[in-house]
Amino acid sequence: MKFYIKTFGCQMNFNDSERIKGILKSLGYEQARSYEEADIILLNTCTIREKPDQKVYSHLGEYKKVKEKNPKAIIGVCGCLAQRMGAELVNKAPVIDLMFSSFNIHQLPQLIQQAQAGYKAIAILEEPPEDEDKLWEYPTVRDNQYCAYVTVMKGCDKNCTYCVVPKTRGRQRSRSLQSILSEVKALVEDGVKEIHLLGQNVTAWGQDIGMHFADLLYEVAQVEGVQRIRFTTGHPKDMDERIAKAMGEIPTVCPHVHLPFQAGSNRILALMDRGYTKEEYLEKIQMLREYKKGITFSTDVIVGFPTETEEDFEHTLDLLEKVRFEQVFSFKFSPRPGTPAYSMEGQVPDDVKTQRMARLLNLQKKILSEIAKEYEGTIQEVLLESYENGKLVGRTLTNRWATLQGPEELLGKTVLVRVEKANPYNLECSLVSVLS
Ligand code: SAH
Ligand code: SF4
Ligand code: F3S
């Protein structure tokens, strides 16, 4: 029996898919090379913007054909669109045999049995069930041998007015320290060098269990064999001095933070209910720079939030110039049903969003080419994580992709490299020495 999973969305969804693969392997399934040969096809969906919603329907249309050849094949949908739409999704796409969400991934074995018996196995819950922590008993199946994601928190307690995540993933539930550490230990024993802690709001970890994210950083750093620690996504409101201090004190925490600011205008930030001002955001950046030498930043931005004026938008551009992010993920505002911003007055026309987006991308391109120049000739530490087209590929501590010539045996090693040529998205490097 074979499975095929297609994943959309964020790293949390990606890590959920890794866990689903672990469950399916434990049931005796093997990974199929393509959906055509699979006995169970799963779509792990995202609904953050309208675009990913649409992709799901076109994929389901494709998968329908598999049933013509293999009538026993099971087609399942999970993830955030499944949670948001529930049974309505099955009405729209009757080809679906099985459905669950991030609340009840651990129930997959029973759901598969139900579907195999010929029933529609639809289990969309209002609230996460009490036994949801059973999920952590399953290992993940990873493609990357050396860098691993570890989900440390589910859900989100913020209420940004544009966002569906609190609805699709529920309220914040921090995973226990003990459960996290035992997964980290198992991963290190399996050869993992870099641990990437995940949560929609990872810097709020612990708030619901009487702990603080800084404690988690110190604890993970204590696990022998952990060479690098990263985390995603940080929220400016929770990014406090304790975290900055921990980052500074722990050498294995990488000098890079993904810290979405979403908008530069204080008026728009208030409408978004983000809980900080532009000035406060800049103070956090400054604080992190003081505690963590050489730190770099990436961010998310929304363009064209309801009522955004030219002047508001210029504050967004100004923030890009002030912080000089290494990476900017920018999105046109997409009104999501059920969120307050969906029905706000003053929706921005699409052509205005498109024009502003183009200006933002242009500015960021310029900044990026300047940043790239600063890398040229420098020595960087790179963890080599894959071998592609005859080249070793890895990331610098500051989260830039680097490629270099060298033997495949160096995979999994941390090396020092010299940056020969810096392209906006890739540093072409030469080997200086092997560290470990
Ligand atoms: N928890 C993260 C965000 C997760 S969603 C945080 O608070 O930073 C990833 C990104 O999608 C967001 O940062 C935001 O930039 C974008 N996004 C979320 N909802 C959106 C919407 N309705 N329209 C456009 N972009 C959106
Ligand atoms: Fe959405 Fe805001 Fe929570 Fe991020 S912090 S997941 S944007 S509600
Ligand atoms: Fe998408 Fe859900 Fe992640 S909506 S961005 S998959 S939390």
TrEMBL record:
<dbReference type="InterPro" id="IPR005839">
    <property type="entry name" value="Methylthiotransferase"/>
</dbReference>
<dbReference type="InterPro" id="IPR002792">
    <property type="entry name" value="TRAM_dom"/>
</dbReference>
<keyword id="KW-0819">tRNA processing</keyword>
<feature type="domain" description="MTTase N-terminal">
    <location>
        <begin position="1"/>
        <end position="117"/>
    </location>
</feature>
<feature type="binding site">
    <location>
        <position position="160"/>
    </location>
    <ligand>
        <name>[4Fe-4S] cluster 2</name>
    </ligand>
</feature>
<dbReference type="InterPro" id="IPR038135">
    <property type="entry name" value="Methylthiotransferase_N_sf"/>
</dbReference>
<dbReference type="InterPro" id="IPR058240">
    <property type="entry name" value="rSAM_sf"/>
</dbReference>
<keyword id="KW-0004">4Fe-4S</keyword>
<keyword id="KW-0963">Cytoplasm</keyword>
<dbReference type="Pfam" id="PF04055">
    <property type="entry name" value="Radical_SAM"/>
</dbReference>
<dbReference type="InterPro" id="IPR007197">
    <property type="entry name" value="rSAM"/>
</dbReference>
<dbReference type="InterPro" id="IPR006638">
    <property type="entry name" value="Elp3/MiaA/NifB-like_rSAM"/>
</dbReference>
<keyword id="KW-0479">Metal-binding</keyword>
<feature type="binding site">
    <location>
        <position position="10"/>
    </location>
    <ligand>
        <name>[4Fe-4S] cluster 1</name>
    </ligand>
</feature>
<feature type="binding site">
    <location>
        <position position="163"/>
    </location>
    <ligand>
        <name>[4Fe-4S] cluster 2</name>
    </ligand>
</feature>
<feature type="binding site">
    <location>
        <position position="80"/>
    </location>
    <ligand>
        <name>[4Fe-4S] cluster 1</name>
    </ligand>
</feature>
<feature type="binding site">
    <location>
        <position position="156"/>
    </location>
    <ligand>
        <name>[4Fe-4S] cluster 2</name>
    </ligand>
</feature>
<feature type="domain" description="Radical SAM core">
    <location>
        <begin position="142"/>
        <end position="370"/>
    </location>
</feature>
<feature type="binding site">
    <location>
        <position position="46"/>
    </location>
    <ligand>
        <name>[4Fe-4S] cluster 1</name>
    </ligand>
</feature>
<protein>
    <recommendedName>
        <fullName>tRNA-2-methylthio-N(6)-dimethylallyladenosine synthase</fullName>
        <ecNumber>2.8.4.3</ecNumber>
    </recommendedName>
</protein>
<keyword id="KW-0949">S-adenosyl-L-methionine</keyword>
<keyword id="KW-0808">Transferase</keyword>
<keyword id="KW-0408">Iron</keyword>
<dbReference type="GO" id="GO:0035597">
    <property type="term" value="F:tRNA-2-methylthio-N(6)-dimethylallyladenosine(37) synthase activity"/>
</dbReference>
<dbReference type="InterPro" id="IPR023404">
    <property type="entry name" value="rSAM_horseshoe"/>
</dbReference>
<comment type="subunit">
    <text>Monomer.</text>
</comment>
<dbReference type="GO" id="GO:0046872">
    <property type="term" value="F:metal ion binding"/>
</dbReference>
<feature type="domain" description="TRAM">
    <location>
        <begin position="373"/>
        <end position="433"/>
    </location>
</feature>
<comment type="similarity">
    <text>Belongs to the methylthiotransferase family. MiaB subfamily.</text>
</comment>
<dbReference type="InterPro" id="IPR020612">
    <property type="entry name" value="Methylthiotransferase_CS"/>
</dbReference>
<dbReference type="Pfam" id="PF01938">
    <property type="entry name" value="TRAM"/>
</dbReference>
<dbReference type="GO" id="GO:0005829">
    <property type="term" value="C:cytosol"/>
</dbReference>
<comment type="function">
    <text>Catalyzes the methylthiolation of N6-(dimethylallyl)adenosine (i(6)A), leading to the formation of 2-methylthio-N6-(dimethylallyl)adenosine (ms(2)i(6)A) at position 37 in tRNAs that read codons beginning with uridine.</text>
</comment>
<dbReference type="InterPro" id="IPR006463">
    <property type="entry name" value="MiaB_methiolase"/>
</dbReference>
<dbReference type="GO" id="GO:0051539">
    <property type="term" value="F:4 iron, 4 sulfur cluster binding"/>
</dbReference>
<dbReference type="Pfam" id="PF00919">
    <property type="entry name" value="UPF0004"/>
</dbReference>
<keyword id="KW-0411">Iron-sulfur</keyword>
<dbReference type="InterPro" id="IPR013848">
    <property type="entry name" value="Methylthiotransferase_N"/>
</dbReference>
